[in-house]
Amino acid sequence: MARKENADTAANPGRLKQIALTYKMTRRADSKVGLVVAGVGIVTFGVFLAVGFLINHPIYLGILGFILAFLAMAIIFGRRAERAAFGQMEGQPGAAAAVLENVGRGWTTTPAVAMNRNQDVVHRAVGKAGIVLVGEGNPNRVKGLLAAEKKRMARIVVDVPVHDIIVGDGEGQVPLKKVRTTMLKLPRVLAGPQVTAANDRLRAMGDLMSNMPLPKGPMPKGMRMPRGGGKPR
Questions:
Q1: What percent of the chain has pLDDT over 70?
Q2: For the whole model, what pTM was predicted?
Q3: 227 lies in a domain?
């Protein structure tokens, strides 16, 4: 028990430091984050406390309001921090790879399965929705990379659906901040063993880009994206 308490005590300062660092990084891109989060907390707590006085239960509603205010503040802060992180990553080479690494459980991601001399790049994710190819760079050149990668995979994974996403703000493209949501909305058509088999085939096919240096994601210094796990468990 003593060891567990000591571990928890040692972990808490680390978590608080991480929260403080995340707030500092977020505030650089979103100067109003502190006011907005504090405002949400005050308003939430105030509403519950006022209702408590009206029904003669200020203590009960006050405690409930405090808990819900803290929860609301955490949710709002998390969303604004995530938005700030995406804002700092957007437009940088390898940004999509950082997003794919945090899609969530059940996805196996492979950064830079295809790339050209202009540093247009295609990343791959495999999950129960099938294979998702995510391209970033010049849209016209990326389309060629996607087509070539699909043709290369067609000989190996003929029975697995393949989806493609081009990151960007133009017509038919998906903004970086919506890549994860778009992938999670895809219909799940494969069972676990089928996903494993598809990964094994693709791994056997080899990765032409495995020996080329490419950043796995331009995370802002000190900023951490929420962990989601990139491999099936």
A1: 77
A2: 0.61
A3: no
